[in-house]
Every structure is written in C-alpha cells, then in structure tokens.
Automatic annotation (TrEMBL):
<feature type="binding site">
    <location>
        <position position="180"/>
    </location>
    <ligand>
        <name>Zn(2+) 2</name>
    </ligand>
</feature>
<dbReference type="InterPro" id="IPR001623">
    <property type="entry name" value="DnaJ_domain"/>
</dbReference>
<feature type="binding site">
    <location>
        <position position="144"/>
    </location>
    <ligand>
        <name>Zn(2+) 1</name>
    </ligand>
</feature>
<feature type="binding site">
    <location>
        <position position="141"/>
    </location>
    <ligand>
        <name>Zn(2+) 1</name>
    </ligand>
</feature>
<keyword id="KW-0479">Metal-binding</keyword>
<feature type="binding site">
    <location>
        <position position="197"/>
    </location>
    <ligand>
        <name>Zn(2+) 1</name>
    </ligand>
</feature>
<dbReference type="GO" id="GO:0006260">
    <property type="term" value="P:DNA replication"/>
</dbReference>
<feature type="binding site">
    <location>
        <position position="161"/>
    </location>
    <ligand>
        <name>Zn(2+) 2</name>
    </ligand>
</feature>
<feature type="repeat" description="CXXCXGXG motif">
    <location>
        <begin position="194"/>
        <end position="201"/>
    </location>
</feature>
<keyword id="KW-0963">Cytoplasm</keyword>
<feature type="repeat" description="CXXCXGXG motif">
    <location>
        <begin position="158"/>
        <end position="165"/>
    </location>
</feature>
<dbReference type="GO" id="GO:0009408">
    <property type="term" value="P:response to heat"/>
</dbReference>
<dbReference type="GO" id="GO:0051082">
    <property type="term" value="F:unfolded protein binding"/>
</dbReference>
<comment type="similarity">
    <text>Belongs to the DnaJ family.</text>
</comment>
<protein>
    <recommendedName>
        <fullName>Chaperone protein DnaJ</fullName>
    </recommendedName>
</protein>
<dbReference type="Pfam" id="PF00226">
    <property type="entry name" value="DnaJ"/>
</dbReference>
<keyword id="KW-0677">Repeat</keyword>
C-alpha cells in the first residue's frame, strides 16, 4: 500500500515554516496519542504516521530530499540516516506537554501528582459533604524561593549539558538522550547551596486541605485538586492531588450503581400470613407490605429510595430481599404446636409449591436415567 503524503498527514502546505510544521505535528499527535485513545488501533496508526511525517519534515536535509524525490528520497535503505530521531521528536515537541524536564528548553519541570485515599461512609458518599484532609507534600523552600541557591547568590549554566538538562550518548547508529548526570536535568549548577533545603529548593510539609465531596460519589471516583501536588524543582509548577474515594462497607446496604440492596429477615408466620413491617432507607424508615404466602428470596422494589449518581441520571431504587428465618431455641410448647401444625397439613404438598415442583423434577430425572 502506498504511503500518504507527509504534508497531507500533518495538514500543512509545502511552504510551511518549521514552526508551522512543529505546531501541526503537536496538534495531530496530541489528538491521536495512545494515552488519550487506549485500545484504538486507528488512532495508534495515525499517531505513528504523524511521527514518521514529522521525523522527515522536521529535519531540513530530509525535508529537502523528500521535496525533491518523494518517499524514495527518505527511504532508510537508501538514505544516510541522521537528523531528527524519535527521542528528538518527543523532547522538542512534547517536553512541555507531558512534563518532560528539559531544563533550558522546556523550563522548570512540573511537580509530581499525588494520590490520597479518602474513606467515606455510604451516607456521606450519597449525600455529599466537605471534609478536611491532612496531606504530606513537598513545597518550595521559602528561604531560597525554590531556586536551591543561598539567598543573594545565583546559579550558573551547567557546563556539561550547556543548560539543556540532557546529554546525548551515541552508540553506533543509535543516539540516546538522557538526563545530565552533572546537574540532574536542571540545566543549572548551584555553587553556594541554600542552607535550609541543602540546594534542593524543596522541603516537606503537611498541608490541610478542604475537599468538597459531591453527592453520589462511589468507590473509584477521583476528585482533582489542581496545583495541590508536589512542587516542581527549580520553582516549577506544582502537580495535582487526586483524592480517591473509597466507600466503606455498610452494615445494611450494598450499593450497585444507582440502586441499593438489602436483606430483610422475616419470621415463618409473617411469610405465611403476611403483614407489614418497617424497613430502613437512607432517608428514614418506610413501611413494607408483605403479602401472604411470601417465599424466601422474594424481591420488593422501593422506587426512588436508592442513590442519585454523581454523573447524573435518575435516582435509583432500594431492592429488599426477604429471607424467611427458621425459628430456633423452641420451647416444648412451641415444638408441640409446630408438630400439630405439620400433622394438620396431612402430607399434602399443595402447601409447599416449591417442594412439589422439586419432587416432580427428581422423579423425572430418575425416570430418564432408567429409560
């Protein structure tokens, strides 16, 4: 299959400047980046296609050869290599997008994101509330204002990487960029370090934050607090804090999306004769009518007694599953009464519909075995 035109892939004219080519590549690559389109084969192919196009159009020599000879002019089997490689593309184009700390080129690196697990009761998760949390974090040193240098002194450009924060290591045909071992990616060296932070520009601190929990959150939901993560080195911007919601197990209810489930124990006589009993909901008690001859496992739906999800949608229901309890610790008199009741049934299975159908199924099973 023939390759598409590289200018067409990036959506630029042949006379586009280097800056326009770079901007176009950023736009296409960001749209189809694998992190933004997981398990999307079409986007993955378009991303690779954009990489290939920029590797050629982003290099003056390769672009000139491509303009003159087309794809044949940049065929790696007949062309001499060199120019912008894979690491160059990502260092130059995506360094400031994905937090790459290229010292002099991309500026101070962004700080790390943080995660805080917040345990909530089901009631608080459903209704929402504002909570205060204490988070250990890293902030800029007040003494040196995050520079790492003693007040009144200045930093100097790193002589190893010339301020870029990265050095290139070549092995044969391959060229790899790595963090400068001298300045550790800062691009600057500190001659007289700050006495309070020892040249790091950062210090540890425990901060108290107020977090507003919206109604309807569930386990796994995240609340993003922008700029509340770790401070970046060299005075760089702070990362974000992600508050991860964990809803504690409830003694009565089990949540399933917008619905709530609970088991309601009823006595043998209540199941047989029917009646009315009180059941709990998150909004208070309600009456549940139990019809006569109710079997264990029967589900009763109380509409609108569930949860309104945080992402919208109608309020769910409360599903009550009745469980008929066998009486225990019987007195002698109670035992006699039950024996008399059993005798009154006269062995007729019409009083036990499930038992009747079960024995019929057993008989059919054995008939099939012997036939």
């Amino acid at each position: 299959m023939s390759k598409r035109d590289y200018y067409e892939i990036l959506g630029v004219d042949k006379g586009a400047s280097e800056a326009e080519v770079k901007k176009a590549f950023r736009r296409v690559a960001m749209k189809h980046h694998p992190d933004r389109n997981p398990d999307n084969k079409e986007s993955e192919e378009k991303f690779k296609e954009a990489q290939e196009a920029y590797e050629v159009l982003g290099d003056k020599e390769k672009r000139a050869s491509y303009d003159r000879f087309g794809h044949a002019g940049v065929d790696p089997q007949g062309h001499g290599g060199g120019g912008a490689g894979f690491s160059d593309i990502f260092g130059d184009v995506f360094g400031d997008i994905f937090g790459g700390g290229r010292g002099g080129r991309g500026g101070p690196a962004r700080g790390s994101d943080m995660r805080y697990d917040l345990a909530l009761s089901l009631e608080d998760a459903v209704r929402g509330k504002t909570v205060e949390i204490k988070v250990p974090t890293v902030v800029h040193c007040d003494t040196c204002d995050g520079s790492g240098a003693r007040p009144g002194t200045s930093t100097s450009t790193c002589g190893t990487c010339q301020g870029h924060g990265q050095v290139r290591m070549s092995q044969g045909f391959f060229s790899v960029q790595q963090t400068c071992p001298q300045c550790h990616g800062r691009g600057k060296t500190i001659n007289d370090p700050c006495g309070d932070c020892h040249g790091q520009g950062l210090r540890e601190e425990r901060q108290t934050l107020s977090v507003k929990i919206p109604p309807g959150v569930d386990s796994g939901d995240r609340i993003r607090l922008s700029g509340k993560g770790e401070a970046g080195p060299q005075g760089g911007p702070a990362g974000d804090l992600y508050v991860q919601v964990v809803v504690r197990e409830h003694p009565i209810f089990i949540r399933d999306g917008a619905n709530l489930h609970c088991e309601v124990p009823i006595s043998f006589s209540q199941a047989a004769l029917g009646g009315e009993l009180e059941v709990p909901t998150l909004a208070g008690k309600v009456k549940l009518k139990i019809p006569a001859e109710t079997q264990t496992g029967k589900l009763f739906r109380l509409r609108g007694k569930g949860v309104t999800p945080v992402r919208g949608g109608g309020q769910g229901d409360l599903l009550c599953r009745v469980v008929v309890e066998t009486p225990v610790h019987l007195s002698a008199e109670q035992r006699k009464l039950l024996e008399k009741f059993e005798e009154s049934l006269g062995g007729k299975r019409k009083h036990s519909p499930k038992s009747d159908s079960w024995f019929a199924g057993v008989k059919k099973f054995f008939d099939n075995l012997t036939s």
